[in-house]
């Protein structure tokens, strides 16, 4: 019986520690989600981070598709319900006073140019492909979603660094 009494405080400490860790993780996740929401609402900061990720991805910034892609990613991130790519193109087209088909083509061309310049060098880390696998050029919607995911990861990393 004496041994049981010694184990009870150990068990209680383990349970308390586990509960505390869950609470901290929940608080950390809430802080990260809150940071993402605040960041997405700040157009200037969001646009800067989106442009940084597009440049890191390897799309030349002198192309029209670069600016259209940047706007498309911002729209994608700011909408609560995810729009179809064609709807995003229409919003971007209205902003730049062009047709949605020109937006789609310019983004596709920017991805093609990037693909020809640095086929595996930058794509592998972003898509997680293994270097020996035959890579295919991503679609516009895949590129928008992937870059938006990278931006969210960057925001979460910054928020986590502040939180810790």
CATH superfamily: Winged helix-like DNA-binding domain superfamily/Winged helix DNA-binding domain
| Percent strand | under 5%
Low-pLDDT regions: none
Q: How many β-strand runs? A: 0
* Overall outline: elongated
Order of helices and strands: HHHHHHH
Average pLDDT, rounded to a whole number, is: 78
Tell me which oligomeric state these chains represent: single chain
Helix content: over 70%
For the largest beta-sheet, the strand count, sense and barrel status come to: none
Task: List the total number of helices.
Answer: 7
The fold-level CATH name is Arc Repressor Mutant, subunit A
Number of domains: 1
Secondary-structure-based class equals mainly alpha
- The CATH class assignment is Mainly Alpha
In the CATH hierarchy, what is the architecture at level 2? Orthogonal Bundle
Span from first to last CA?
Answer: 43 Å
Radius of gyration: 22 Å
Model description:
The chain has one domain (2-163): Winged helix-like DNA-binding domain superfamily/Winged helix DNA-binding domain (Arc Repressor Mutant, subunit A). It has 164 residues and is an all-alpha fold. Helices cover 79% and strands 0% of the residues. The chain has helices at 2-41, 43-57, 64-78, 85-96, 100-117, 123-127, 140-163. It is built from seven helices and no strands. The chain starts with a helix and ends with a helix.
């Amino acid at each position: 019986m004496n041994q049981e009494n010694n184990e009870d405080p150990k068990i209680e400490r383990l349970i308390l520690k586990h509960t505390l860790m869950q609470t901290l993780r929940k608080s950390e996740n809430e802080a990260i989600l809150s940071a993402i929401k605040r960041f997405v609402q700040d157009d200037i900061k969001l646009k800067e981070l989106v442009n940084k990720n597009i440049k890191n991805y390897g799309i030349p910034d002198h192309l029209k598709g670069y600016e259209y892609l940047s706007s498309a990613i911002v729209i994608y991130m700011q909408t609560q319900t995810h729009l179809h790519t064609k709807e995003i193109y229409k919003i971007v087209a209205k902003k730049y006073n062009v047709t949605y088909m020109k937006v789609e083509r310019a983004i596709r061309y920017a991805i093609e140019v990037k693909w020809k310049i640095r086929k595996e060098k930058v794509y592998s880390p972003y898509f997680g492909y293994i270097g020996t696998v035959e890579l295919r050029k991503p679609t516009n919607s895949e590129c928008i979603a992937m870059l938006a995911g990278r931006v969210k990861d960057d925001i979460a990393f910054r928020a986590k660094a502040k939180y810790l």
